[in-house]
C-alpha cells in the first residue's frame, strides 16, 4: 500500500470513529471530543518537533501547557484596580529588583576573574538583592491577596481580546523554554528529561500557590470567549427560528453552534501549523535538524552549531505547546491549575507522538485525534463491558463488585495495549517518517 493511501485510510478510519460517536451517542459529545482532539494534535506537533526533528526528550510538556493557559488569564481578563492600588506597582518593583539582581550576578560571573573575589561579590549581590526583593514582594502580595479574596485577590489581566492570548501563550512558553534550554540543553538526554519534568512541576506549583498571579487553587473563571455565548444565541429570535428550521431546540442548537465555531478556529490554527511544519521539514533547515538528530558528531564536524539548533527547536516546539495551552484554557473558559498533571499533559502527548509516528507531522496529528478519542471513550465503554460480563453474577458477588470498580482503569490499560501493539507491528508509528 502506498504511503499517501495509507495516510488517507487511517484518517478516514479516525473520522469514522468521530462520526459514529455523533450518530450513536450525540453530536455535542462528538464535537467536544473533536475540539480537544485538535488541541491534542497541536500539542503532539510541538512535542514531535522536539523529539522527531531533533531527538530532544522533553517530559515537561505540562509546564509549557500551563504557561499557555496562564497567558489567557493575563491577556484576556480585566484588571483589578483595587489590587493594583493596594500593591500592584510595589510588586512590579519587586520583580524588577529580582531580575536586576540576577542580571548583575550573571555580569559579575562573566566579567570578573575566577577566584574568591568573584565568589564573594556574587554572594553579596545575591544576598542583598534577595532581602531587598522580599522586602518589596511580601507586603505587596499580602495587600493584593486581601482585596476581595472571595472573587478576586489577584492583579487580573490586560482586558485585551482573548485571541491575542494564543500567540502570547506561545511566546511565554517559548521564553521559558529559552531560559531552560540555556541551562539544560548541555545535559545528557536522560538528565534533560529529568530537568524538564522538574521545571514543569515548579511552574505548576507556582501557579497553584501564587494567588496574586491567577488566584492559585481558587481558579479563574469567566475567561472571555472568541465565540458567542449559548445564552445570547438562545435569546436571539433569528437564531431560534433558524434552529427550528433544522428541527433543533434552542439549547441544543446553541451548544452545537458554539462547538462548531471553536472547531473552525482550532482547525484553522492546526492547518496553518501543519503547512508551515511540512514546509520546514522539507527545507534545508529540516534536513539539517534531522542530520543533527541522527548523528550529532558528524553534524558538528560539518560546522553545524548543534547546541544552538537544539535550543532553537526546543523553543519552537515549546511555543507550539504553549499555543495549544492557551487555546485549551480559552475553550474551558477557566484556568484550573490543579488539573495540570503529567499523565494527561505530558505522557499522553508522548503516546500520541509514538503511536502516530515520530518525526512525521501527519503522524502526530493522527496520534492526537486517535489517542484522545480512546482516552475519552474507553472508560464509559469499559463500564458497559464490565456490566455485560457481570450481568449473570449475583448482586453480592465480590468478583462482580471488583470488576465493576476496576472499569475506570480500562483507560490506562487500553493506552498500554495500543502502545504495545503499535510498537510490535509498526515500530515507526502508524504514519512513519519519510
UniProtKB/TrEMBL annotation:
GO molecular function: branched-chain amino acid transmembrane transporter activity
GO CC terms in record: plasma membrane
Protein name: Branched-chain amino acid ABC transporter permease
Subcellular localization(s) per the UniProt record: Cell membrane
Record's bilayer topology term: Multi-pass membrane protein
Organism: Haematobacter genomosp. 1
Keyword Membrane: yes
Pfam hit, one: BPD_transp_2
PANTHER family: HIGH-AFFINITY BRANCHED-CHAIN AMINO ACID TRANSPORT PROTEIN BRAE, HIGH-AFFINITY BRANCHED-CHAIN AMINO ACID TRANSPORT SYSTEM PERMEASE
Keyword Transmembrane helix: yes
Alphabetical keyword list: Cell membrane, Membrane, Transmembrane, Transmembrane helix
TM ranges: 31-49, 56-77, 89-108, 120-137, 157-179, 191-207, 256-281, 311-331, 343-362, 369-389, 409-426
Amino acid at each position: 500500500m502506498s504511503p499517501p493511501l495509507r495516510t488517507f485510510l487511517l484518517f478516514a478510519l479516525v473520522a469514522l470513529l468521530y462520526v459514529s460517536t455523533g450518530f450513536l451517542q450525540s453530536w455535542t459529545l462528538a464535537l467536544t471530543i473533536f475540539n480537544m482532539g485538535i488541541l491534542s494534535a497541536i500539542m503532539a506537533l510541538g512535542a514531535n518537533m522536539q523529539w522527531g526533528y531533533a531527538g530532544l526528550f522533553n517530559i515537561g510538556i505540562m509546564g509549557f501547557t500551563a504557561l499557555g493557559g496562564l497567558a489567557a488569564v493575563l491577556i484576556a481578563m480585566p484588571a483589578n484596580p483595587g489590587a493594583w492600588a493596594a500593591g500592584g506597582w510595589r510588586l512590579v518593583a519587586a520583580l524588577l529588583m529580582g531580575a536586576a539582581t540576577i542580571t548583575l550576578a550573571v555580569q559579575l560571573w562573566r566579567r570578573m576573574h575566577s577566584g574568591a573575589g568573584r565568589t564573594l561579590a556574587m554572594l553579596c549581590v545575591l544576598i542583598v538583592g534577595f532581602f531587598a526583593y522580599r522586602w518589596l514582594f511580601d507586603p505587596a502580595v499580602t495587600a493584593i491577596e486581601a482585596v476581595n479574596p472571595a472573587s478576586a485577590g489577584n492583579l487580573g489581566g490586560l482586558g485585551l481580546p482573548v485571541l491575542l492570548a494564543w500567540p502570547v501563550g506561545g511566546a511565554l512558553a517559548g521564553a521559558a523554554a529559552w531560559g531552560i534550554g540555556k541551562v539544560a540543553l548541555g545535559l545528557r538526554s536522560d538528565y534533560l528529561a529529568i530537568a524538564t519534568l522538574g521545571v514543569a512541576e515548579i511552574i505548576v506549583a507556582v501557579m497553584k500557590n501564587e494567588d496574586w498571579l491567577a488566584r492559585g487553587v481558587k481558579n479563574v473563571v469567566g475567561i472571555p470567549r472568541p465565540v458567542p455565548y449559548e445564552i445570547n444565541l438562545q435569546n436571539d429570535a433569528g437564531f431560534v427560528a433558524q434552529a427550528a428550521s433544522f428541527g433543533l431546540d434552542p439549547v441544543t442548537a446553541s451548544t452545537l453552534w458554539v462547538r462548531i465555531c471553536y472547531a473552525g478556529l482550532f482547525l484553522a490554527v492546526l492547518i496553518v501549523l501543519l503547512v508551515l511544519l511540512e514546509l520546514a521539514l522539507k527545507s534545508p533547515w529540516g534536513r539539517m535538524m534531522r542530520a543533527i538528530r541522527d548523528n550529532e558528531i558528524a553534524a558538528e564536524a560539518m560546522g553545524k552549531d548543534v547546541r544552538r539548533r537544539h535550543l532553537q527547536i526546543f523553543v519552537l516546539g515549546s511555543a507550539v505547546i504553549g499555543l495549544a495551552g492557551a487555546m485549551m484554557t480559552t475553550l474551558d473558559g477557566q484556568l484550573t491549575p490543579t488539573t495540570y498533571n503529567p499523565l494527561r499533559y505530558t505522557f499522553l502527548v508522548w503516546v500520541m507522538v509514538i503511536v502516530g509516528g515520530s518525526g512525521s507531522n501527519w503522524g502526530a496529528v493522527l496520534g492526537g485525534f486517535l489517542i484522545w478519542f480512546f482516552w475519552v471513550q474507553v472508560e464509559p465503554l469499559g463500564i458497559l463491558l464490565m456490566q455485560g460480563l457481570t450481568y449473570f453474577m449475583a448482586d453480592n458477588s465480590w468478583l462482580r463488585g471488583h470488576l465493576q470498580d476496576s472499569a475506570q482503569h480500562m483507560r490506562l490499560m487500553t493506552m498500554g495495549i495500543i502502545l504495545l501493539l503499535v510498537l510490535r507491528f509498526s515500530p515507526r508509528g502508524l504514519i512513519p517518517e519519510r
